[in-house]
Amino acid sequence: MFLRKFVNKDNESKERILEHKMHISQSNPAPVFDLSDCRLSQLPSGVYIMCKVYRKDRLILSNNLFNKIPNNESNRVEDLRNLKYLNFSFNRLTKITSKISFLIELEELHLNSNKLKALPESLSQLKNLKVIDLNDNCFESFPSVLTQIRSLNVIRIRNNDKVKQLPLNLVHLKNLVVLEIDTTVGDLNETSEEESKVEMSGKDDDSDNETYAYEVKINTNKAPSSEEKKKKLLECEKQLQDDISTQQSLLSASEMKKKVLLSELYSEQMNVAKDLEMLQLKKVQNKASLIKTLCLLENHSNNLINYLNRWEARRLQQKSILDEIEENHKRLQKSQVSLKKNAVVKAMQHCLQDSADDRTMQLLLKNKEANQEMVREQLLREQTLQKEAFEMLQRERDQQHRFISNQIKLIEKGLLALTQAEMQRKSHNLDAIMTNVCEQRTYLASCLAQLLKEKENRESVIHNFVENLEEERSAMIDRSENNDFWLLEYQRAMNDESLENQLRIVGVEDENVQQILIDCGEQILPYMHLFAAPNVTFDRLLQMNEKELIALGIDSYDIAQMITQAVQKREKVLLPSAPPCDDDDEAAPSAPPLIKYWYQVECVICLNNEVSI
Question: Within this chain, do residues 61 and 144 fall inside the same structural domain, yes or no?
């Protein structure tokens, strides 16, 4: 967990550093685009084109994780034609793309501290290249393509262990000033007539002034004598050994300084990351406050615009009133010429205006009466529906009506059974027993007619009771109670209803589910409708836990736990205590199997083939 947090924090700091450097590179007027020390394995899209647009001629991508020089649709090397300085040091480069030949203006190329083994031949097309740094790579031999770049001034190829000999063509580089190589590399060509003279140069191209560079010069004079040559070679060898020991001590000291510098750089980088994080946080806070201020300003401006709109509307209204007054004044001035004629015309206009106003008023009154009539009819329809719902609830609550309905259903089932038996006997030609069946049918039909009559009587009694309540409602004075009368009566009837009847009215048909809800008590009343769904059965409740009950719609964990306990209690009641009987011990029936015949069942009243029971 700690490692994950550290990695996430490292990724966030890397993204912040990359964003900061991208912003600095774009806003800084200097011709440098620096994305070093960002731990990039892929270059962000558009970097090359930004170098072209912002006219940056120096691109620094050192201390990253590149395996190759990026060249894709979002970053094409062709966009770096005007680049003069390119730094890919301290990466993981294994090869150089052949499209580097498009960098025709390139003067310095730094590829040190990578994993390069060879250079492409297209590098020879860089006619303006002056400095190339190939230190700390994996070259197996001196790259021959360098001898074809006649504009080179500085070549650095130290710490490449497999480079043991320099090519002879190196002498053709007339502009070469500095060649940095290891001390183990041999002469240019020992058998040539032109000898190489290696001199120690005291110049230091690095920032620490701790390394030495070898300056190569070609001496075209005649060779000295053998003794002088041996003497000079011995002196040079001794001087080289002294320089090697001095260089080793300097290298060790430089390594120590490098470690100290790296630690300081790391601490500085962490401080910069913290500062960036604080700046980002402050930026977010400023952004939030700015957004809040903008929202307040927007609301204020909206209020101001609304106020100005109202003021403009009031001004226009006043202007129209003033214009009307002015027109009336002008009209009065003109009317003084012919006062009688204008008075008659004015009187006629008033009469016409009054008649038009009367017609308009009558039309408005008719529309108002029509609207009132529509509202009255709608209220009457709603009250009628409420009254019918209340009457239906009374029928469902009435035990005598319920008893009669159940008896009617039993008689209808009995008549259906007699019809089925009669059809079977007809198919088996049993005419002798038909008389008994007809008597039973006659008796059940008479019972059915009597029960239907009693049902109608009971429904009429309930209807009379509802009509009496309607008369009481009509006699009420308070209009608000009069409008909600049937709703209040329905709610009062539901509150007086027992929990079992309420469950039956809601639609909970499973007896086990009804018993579970009855055991839970009145706390389950707000959630009764959730158990009326057909998929909520006793078997499903056995498989549900408290979380599933809460997902069903019960918003209280205590009630869900109460329901779970009631389900477990009901399961214990229904679980048989005796062991299951063994069906194998029972004797198989000796009678032949029942032969089933197809037949249609007809109604006992209208003798239709289809029955809806």
Answer: yes
Q: Are residues 437 and 568 in the same domain?
A: no
State how far the Cα of 212 lies from the Cα of 411, in Å rounded to an integer.
Answer: 120
> Quick one: 132 exposed, middle or buried, by C-beta within 10 A (0-12, 13-18, 19+)?
buried
486 in Cβ contact with 387 (< 8 Å): yes
> 348: which DSSP letter?
H
Is residue 84 classed as helix, strand or coil in its secondary structure? coil
Q: Which residues of 361-388 are buried (b: 16+ CB within 10 A; e: fewer)?
A: eeeeeeeeeeeeeeeeeeeeeebeebbe
| Domain extent at residue 519 | 507-574
Contacts of 103 (CB under 8 A, 6+ apart): 77, 80, 81, 83, 86, 126
For 178, the 3-state DSSP assignment is strand
CA distance 242 to 240: 5
Strands 58-60 and 108-110: unpaired
* 430 and 399 housed in the same domain: yes
What's the half-sphere exposure (Cβ side, CA atoms, 13 Å) at 558? 1
Residue with tokens 């205006």: 353
Domain count of the fold of the chain: 3
For 142, the 3-state DSSP assignment is coil
Report the alpha-carbon angle 388-392-398, nearest 5.
Answer: 140
Same domain, 31 and 149: yes
Task: Tell which phi-psi region holds residue 113, choosing left (phi > 0), alpha (psi between -120 and 50) or beta.
Answer: left
One domain, residues 410 and 543: no
Task: Select the highest-mean-pLDDT range: 114-123, 475-484, 509-518.
Answer: 114-123
Residue 531: give its domain's CATH number.
1.10.150
Confidence of residue 454 (pLDDT cuts 50, 70, 90): confident
Count of residues making up the chain: 613
Query: What is the C-alpha to C-alpha distance for residues 419 and 484, in angstroms, rounded to an integer?
Result: 50
Same domain, residue pair 517 and 441: no
**Does 508 score more than 90 pLDDT?**
no
- DSSP notation for 316-338: HHHHHHHHHHHHHHHHHHHHTTT
Residue 362 domain flag: no
Given a contact cutoff of 8 angstroms between Cβ atoms, the answer to whether 138 and 116 are in contact is yes
Which candidate, 44, 33, 34, 51, places its Cα nearest to that of 66? 44
Q: Using 50, 70 and 90 to split pLDDT, how confident is the model at 146? A: very high
Express each pLDDT in 222-262 by its tens digit.
344 577 877 878 887 888 788 788 878 888 888 888 888 88
Are residue 193 and residue 137 in the same domain, yes or no? yes
Query: Which residue, of 440, 466, 497, is where some domain finishes?
Result: 497
pLDDT digits (tens, 9 = 90+) for 575-603: 765 555 544 444 445 544 443 333 444 44
Residues 93 and 67: beta-carbon distance below 8 Å: yes
- Alpha-carbon distance of 402 to 409, in angstroms, equals 11
Query: Measuring CA to CA, which residue among 594, 549, 588, 551 is closest to residue 567?
Result: 549
Cβ atoms within 10 Å, residue 491:
11
User: Looking at the predicted structure, is the pLDDT value of residue 161 above 50?
Assistant: yes
- The one-letter amino acid code at 243 reads D
φ/ψ region of 176 (left if φ > 0, alpha if ψ in -120 to 50, else beta) reads: beta
Give residue 563's identity as a one-letter amino acid code: I
Amino acid at 422: E
Distance of CA 201 to the CA centre of its chain: 65
